[in-house]
Here is the input.
Amino acid sequence: MESLRQKKGFICDMDGVIYHGNKLLPGVKEFVNWLNENDKRFLFLTNGSGKSPKELRIKMQRLGLDIDEKHFYTSALATASFLSKQTPGCSAYVIGEPGLLNAIYDKGIAFNDIDPDYVVVGETFTYNHSHITKAMRLVMNGARLIATNPDLTYPEEDGIAPACKALVAPIEITTGKQAYYIGKPNSLMMRTAVRILETRASETAMIGDRMDTDIIAGIESGLDPILVLSGVSTLQTVSEFPYRPRLILNGVGDIVD
Here is the structure.
């Protein structure tokens, strides 16, 4: 634990680590105060693509924490950056919430539901048969399939809900095409996070609640992998994976204690 407290940088997942839906988790306020008081560099790195950094800041303010936009980085931003570098001036058919759409537009990527270069899928609350059919046909006609993250589920106040991979699955199955997933554990996301913090990997901890994204991302990126049991993974599910976190905590508040 003392080794963790000495890290210069902290990369933290949000859902299941900082909050469940609109409920702040125990110990989070104390943890954020500790980060600030000890001049730690920190970044909230979320696979969620629905909200922009500004919207995430507003949400955190509602939950009682005032955190600058610079401390947030999302899979939507990573996806838009990837597309703009891969195919400058490209177009995309996008299924997702405003955070993803705005990130796409900000990179100069045009919305196109006729002959796009890409079909991009993120979390959305309005997913329907029409979206699946449109995306399926565009992919079959040559559009490349991109997903903002590989999360199958995410935690809400009332339990577990389907996430991005669950929405992409019907398109993959009907087309026979595998999506390219941008978010954690993709190293694109992790390298960007370390660059933003301006720390070395050995000086940085990755704190998350999922073995299949957060912990493996930390391990493969050379970060200190720390699992919290406040979200998806449990002590029982840890044993199902061939790799291990370095520490298992009840929540981020344990770091302050």
In short: Residues 52 and 99 are 5 Å apart (CA to CA). The longest strand covers residues 41-46.
